[in-house]
Amino acid sequence: MSRMKAQMQTLFSVSSLANIKALLPMVFAAACLLAGCGNNRRAEIEQRRAALIHKQDSALAEAQQQLALFDQQLQQAEARYDSLSAAVEQHRRQLSATEQELRAVNQLRQRRDSLRVTCETLGAKIRYIHKRQRENR
């Protein structure tokens, strides 16, 4: 032991040896803490699985809420479009449809189609989340 100490003293100056001696217990304690506190692989996998389930559940709830909102808007838009479309179609037959009426019908149809696509997309997202939940559980 003393021989190793003598070799260390020749390699390092006295002041750097004191610094190393002061740091050695801290380095050893940090190494022990890191080695002792680390989770094993199985626990990490379970934590990630639990986080995935939580993420899927929250994404599903959010998608369902959005779908309910967009579905309500779609129903309102379809009702407005149907009523306005019938009135404008009657004016067309009489050749009295105005440009504003035609524009309004076209805009309502675009809005209705956009809401349909959004609802279909959210429905597909919900189906996909359900599929993934069945696979993961």
Task: Give a written overview of the molecule.
The protein is 91% helix and 0% strand. It is elongated, with a radius of gyration of 35 Å. It starts with a helix and ends with a helix. By secondary structure, the chain is mainly α.
**Series of H and E elements:** HHHH
Q: How confident overall, as mean pLDDT?
A: 84
Low-confidence stretches: none
Question: Which descriptor suits the 3D outline?
Answer: elongated
Distance between the termini: 59 Å
Task: State the helix count.
Answer: 4
Please provide the count of β strands: 0
The structural class is mainly alpha
Task: Summarize the entry for a quick read.
The chain is mainly α and 137 residues long. It is 91% helix and 0% strand.
Search tags:
mainly alpha
List the topology elements.
Blueprint: H1 2-11, H2 14-37, H3 41-93, H4 99-136
Helix pairs in contact: 3-4
